[in-house]
Each structure stands twice: as C-alpha cells, then as structure tokens.
Amino acid sequence: MKITLFGAGGMIGSRIAQEALSRGHEVTAVVRTPGKLALKHDKLKEVTGDASDAASVARVTAGQDAVISAISIADQEGLLRATSAQIQGVKQSGAPRLLVVGGAGSLEVAPGLQLVDAPNFPAAYKAPALAHREVLKVYRKADLDWTYLSPAAVIAPGERTGKFRLGGDQLVADAKGDSKISAEDYAVAMIDEVEKPKHIRQRFTLAY
C-alpha cells in the first residue's frame, strides 16, 4: 500500500514509518525540511509539505491508499487548524482514509469522567490533552473515513511485542490500574488498522 505520513520524525511517527516499511508498504514522509529524517529505506520517500495547508495536504496525499497524521502541535489553535487542513486536503485528493495519532485524555476512566478531567491528571499534559479532545470532536463531524487511535495513558519507546488489548472510548488498564503501551506496539496497531480496517469513523485505543 501507499501511505502518506505526517510527523514521521516524531517519537510515534518514526515507529509508524518503520512498522509500515517492515511490512513492505511504500511510505511518503511529509517534512518541512528534507534530509533530516534518521530513517532511511528504499521504500521511504521524503516530500516537502505543510500539514496546516489544505492545498499542500491535497498535493502530497493524491494517489495514496491511506494517510496517517502523527503531527505534534502544542497549542490548540494550531492543532485545530492543521486538523481542518488535513480533512479538507484529504477530501480534495480523494485519498480513501485518514488515520490519526490521537490523545488519551478523552478516554473515559469512569462513567461520564474522562482521563483529562480526573483529579490526578498531570498538569503538564493538560493543555495538549484538551486540544486533542477538541480535535476528536472535529473528526466525529467530518465527512470522510477517519480513524482516531488513542494510546494508553502512558506511551514511550520500548519493545515491539505485537500483544496488546484493544478498546473503544474507555481507557484500557491492567488489574493494577496501569495503562501502558510502547510506541512500537502502538505502531503495530496503527498499521494493522491500515491493512484491515475495523474502526472506520471511530476512535479506538489499546494497552497491555
């Protein structure tokens, strides 16, 4: 498959790129400055583009089988602007799917209580978590085939095991209440969804 990937230089995006390439897919990495990606592969192509510009998004996603957004924008206004541009651009290009690296903050930890609203949610992560919650609302109103993958409460570089549990809008945690996933296994779930769609116009999540 041909996949356009925004945010390929990030912690999660780089692992998504590697997972896709390891399965034989062709990856077009959209970058602002070519030549800075550490990952090199004969099926990896870098193109210059802007995730916040709909015309640019349309140009780099034309003819692709799937588009993955792993962008990291700190402020809510900027993230929402990029979200709108990506939705518009993908619709213009005719790419059939847009998959999004989302946040965990909007996952429910109790009936009517989302993780970001819990008393013990870290203050340092609150602003981006709230931004991603707003982004999910935008996707839920979007007229295209989107998929939003929320990570576990804790995601970090680690081991690729291929073994994890999936969920929907509720946080997935183990018997001790821990909710963790490696970035490598997150990438596995994302490319699994690209290859065999099960969550069209839905959010899903995962954890060990």
What's the tally of helices?
Answer: 5
Beta-strand content: 15-25%
User: Within the largest sheet, what's the order of strands?
Assistant: 3-2-1-4-5-8-12-10
Mean pLDDT: 96
CATH topology, what is it called?
Rossmann fold
Q: Specify Rg, calculated over alpha carbons.
A: 16 Å
Helix content: 25-40%
Q: Give the domain tally.
A: 1
Shape: globular
**For the report, how would you describe the main beta sheet?**
8 strands, mixed
Instruction: Return the structural class.
Output: alpha/beta
Just name the CATH architecture. 3-Layer(aba) Sandwich
State the CATH class: Alpha Beta
Annotated CATH homologous superfamily: NAD(P)-binding Rossmann-like Domain
Please give the number of β-strands.
12
